[in-house]
Amino acid sequence: MRLLHTSDWHLGRAFHRVNMLAAQAEFIGHLITTVRERGVDAVVVSGDVYDRAVPPLAAVELFDDALHRLADLGVPTVMISGNHDSARRLGVGAGLIGRAGIHLRTEPSACGTPVVLRDDFGDVAFYGLPYLEPALVKDEFGVEKPGHEAVLAAALDRVRADLATRARGTRSVVLAHAFVTGGEASDSERDITVGGVAAVPAGVFAGVDYAALGHLHGCQTITERVRYSGSPLAYSFSETDHRKSMWLVDLDAEGAVTAERVDCPVPRALARIRGTLEDLLADPGLTRHEEAWIEATLTDPVRPADPMARLAERFPHTLSLVFDPERAPDDPDVSYAQRLAGRSDQEIAEDFVAHVRGAGPDEHEQGVLRDAFDAVRADDAVREREVAR
C-alpha cells in the first residue's frame, strides 16, 4: 500500500505580514496532483490542519475545497486534529464525511478504533490519535499524573489491544500529533510542554508498522518506522534551511517501510542575513538573496536611521528586522531578550526566584512552579476549546 504522509498545513496562517493563502492553495493542488500521478492508495494528514481553533472563513473554504478534491479522487484520507485545531470544529460531520472516504479522527476515545483499508496483501488498520492534551484526557486514559508520555502510551496500548484481535498479518499505521524524542523543533510550533517535559520516546510506537507524525515543522526520520512529514510551507525564519516535503511511503506485504520525499512548492526562498546596515547594503555576496523573504539582523553598535526602508531598497521582501549590536559579553547593555534566549518558562521563573531571594527554589518549590505552569496551560486549552464551541 502506498501512503502520502503530510501534516501541519496551518491553513489561515500568515508568514509575518504576508498572507499565505495562495501558497497554501498551491500546495493543496500539488498534493492532489501527487496523489493522482504517483498512484497513492491513502492520504494521511497528521494534525494542525488549521492554524487556530476558530479559523478565518477563507481557510475554511480552502479546506472544504481540499476535501472535495480528495473525495473526487476516490482515494481514502485519514486526518487527525492537532494542538492548533479545535477538535470539535474539525470533527463536525465526521460520520457523514466518512462516507465520502474522508475519515476525520478528533475524539481521544476512538484511538483504538481504526479505519481499515485493503490492498492485494490484506488489511491495513489506520489508527488516528488526535493531539492529546494530558490534563484534558487523563481520565479518559486512566493515568494518575497527566503527562505526554503517559497519555500517548495509554493510547498506543489501546491500538495494540485492537491489533491483537485482528487477522494475522494485519499491518498498522498510526497518526499522532506529538513531540517525539530526537525530533528537532523550530520557532513556529506552539509549546506543548507539560511538567517540564514535552517529548515522548519513540519506543511508545513499538509494534506499529508506520507512525505518521505531526507537530514538528521539519521533515525528519526518527526511526525508519517513525517519521515527521513537517509542514509543507515555512512559517518562521528558523525554517530557512528546511526542505519542505511530504513522505511517499510504501508498505509491503510484511509491513516493511520504503519512504521517498516529495518536494512541495516554494512560494519564495527564505534568507537570514547579518551584519552592519552598510555592509548588508554593499555586500555583493548577498545578491542571490535580493528576491528572497529576508530576516535581517543588524549588528551596528548604534541603531541606524530608517533601517527597514533602506534595506527594502535592495531587499524589497524584507519582513523581519532584528537588532543585535556587537558588544562584549560583560557589557551591561546586553539585552534582556538575549539573556532569556533558549530558556524555558520554568528556568526563567527559577532564575527570578534566585534573583529575588538570593537562592534558587528547592525541589518542592520547583514542583510547585511546574504545577502552576501546567495549570495555566490546561486553563488556556480549556478556554480555547470553549471559544471554539
Please tell me about this protein's structure.
With 389 residues, the protein is α/β, with parallel strands linked by helices. The chain has two domains: 2-263, Metallo-dependent phosphatases (Purple Acid Phosphatase, chain A, domain 2, 4-Layer Sandwich); 270-326, no CATH class. Helix content is 32%, strand content 23%. A six-stranded mixed beta sheet has the order 6-5-4-1-15-16. Strand 4, helix 2 and strand 5 form a beta-alpha-beta unit. Helix 1 (21-37) runs parallel beside helix 2. The radius of gyration is 23 Å and the shape is globular.
List keywords for this structure.
single chain; 389 residues; alpha/beta; Purple Acid Phosphatase, chain A, domain 2; six-stranded mixed sheet; DNA recombination
Give a short synopsis of this structure.
Belongs to the SbcD family. Keywords: DNA recombination, DNA replication, Endonuclease, Exonuclease, Hydrolase, Nuclease. It contains eleven helices and 19 strands.
The number of domains is 2
| CATH architecture type of the largest domain | 4-Layer Sandwich
Helix content: 25-40%
Distinct helical segment count: 11
Strand order of the largest sheet: 6-5-4-1-15-16
Radius of gyration, taken over Cα atoms and rounded to an integer in Å: 23 Å
For the sheet with most strands, the description reads:
6 strands, mixed
Report the principal-axis shape.
Answer: globular
Number of strands: 19
Instruction: Give the ordered list of helices and strands.
Output: EEEHEHEHHEEEHHEEEEEEEEEHEHEHHH
Domain Calcineurin-like phosphoesterase: 1-217
Family: Belongs to the SbcD family.
Domain Nuclease SbcCD subunit D C-terminal: 267-355
InterPro entries: Calcineurin-like_PHP, DNA_Repair-Maintenance_Comp, Metallo-depent_PP-like, Mre11_N, SbcD, SbcD_C
